[in-house]
Amino acid sequence: MNCRECGAQVAAADFVCGNCGALLDKSQTSPLSATTPQPAAHPNRRTARRISTTTLLIALFSCGLLTLIVASAVGGVVVGLQDRETDRQAQADRYYQEGLANFASGRLELAKADFEYVLRLEPTYPGVQEQIAQVTERLTVKPTPTSAALTSAIDQLYQTGVAAYQAQKWATAIDALAQVRSIDPAYQAAQVSQYLFDASVTYGLELVKTDRLEEAIAYLDQAAYIRSLPAEAALQAQYARLYLTARGYWNVNWDKAIEQFSELYAIAPGYKDTFARLVGSYVEYGNERVRAGDSCSAEKQYAEALKLQPNATLQGKLEQATQICLTATPAPISGTAQSLAGLFTGRLAYPVADASGQRIDAASAGNPIVYTAAYGDQPELERSGSQVAYRTGGGLYVGNRNVAPAGAAWPTLSPDGRRLIYALQSRLYMVNVDGGEPIDLGAGSAPTWGPNGLLAYSGCDTGGTCGIMFRNPDKSDPPVRLTGSANDVPSSWSPDGFNISYYSNVSGDYDLFFCNTAGGVQQVTSGVGNDIAGAWGPDGAHVAFLSDRDGTWSVYIAKYDGTELTRIAIAPQGGNWAVQRVSWMP
pTM of the predicted model, to two decimals? Predict the structure, then answer.
């Protein structure tokens, strides 16, 4: 045998390489034989790909041990993704307050660094631009270092500040007095603090009235560092923050705009144009959902707007959305509206092709009544959000945003929902959901992005053997091949990120399988008909899929071993049924 570190020959009984001193790992075996069992298929009859009993026991034990070690880390990543926005806002708040403290105590360079870091964390943070401008201006003041000249400069600044205060020229007074405090915090400390506090509060409230809210917040925050604000000033600062946050979502994210304006409306319904913007957010969100083909959701938004402000035009929008929603509901089952009564957890989206055209139906365990989520196919729900990625004749969409050109297929979202990978002309591309130039990831098709950031897809290795490959799309490491047929189509990942559901016709009709990233393949379904598009459930123990086993394409749920099979919805498929996807997310 040879040493892995230097390649020198060593004896079988050696534990250390005599050439380089490296420890020898004598238990190592061929990676291909250890991690990539090849599914076997007889050309004349159906066979299930199996693992030997010994190998299965070893694999199960290894998976169990790995799961125990990694589960907490994986859970931490998921929670971290969900809490990232909250942590970022809290960090921005903390550095903003530190900047105010450094500013007030004369540590101007530190204050500038704090405010600039806030700007990197949150570019629209209220008041930070004004604070940076003030600090930059103060940094240009270079008092003469002699004691006499410094005392004279401070005296002059103080007199300027007091005179401006008495003349109610608040900005000039604040600027001069703040310079006094930054040069010598002990100089007339009580008087400077009192003048600076009163001027900042008064000027901040005046700026609120003139809608200069960012500046108002900056001055009120500066006063709040000296001591607690009066009740009215504190309320105005709170209202201004809420209003700016809500307005920041205007025409960007109507759902968030509704959430923020609703919070402000609950405590200050008459604040500026809060009422009009809340009504407008509901209406515009409804209009957006109509354009996306989701009239059922639009109906709810219009109804909420009408509760606040009855309007004949809006009533017409509501009636039209209601009518479209009713006619878009899938065909009834047993005389009732279609409902995914068997959906016991999470959200499910699946493609339907019938007389009404190609669409994506969806429902959730909390509300199992089926609705049309979009018009297209190959759906994938956002893992921790409300959007759906899907294919249309005009390209790929995430919500109502076009993110890839016509001909692109298999959209799959990153764990945080900010990026998308898709296939186009037998190559994979990655693009930001908000726009930008796509990145070419190389040859492949049918990509699916897992919860831990790994990507599975159909492709071929350097030796020309094709099957399911997996890799980290953010790294240049070569992919690993897990299966051995070009007809293997990956469709989803298990919630723990260790198993990949796929379907293949290697045994005749299409059946469901899953493979483990550490090696090993297991067949899930068998029998008459085609089983495709397996979507691993949020519980990690069930899979949803499409099947024509009963003569009609329908959605089924079964355990990962193929038992406890239940049909939950009729879902007719068109001529491209072999390239479809079902999405099941928390």
Answer: 0.47
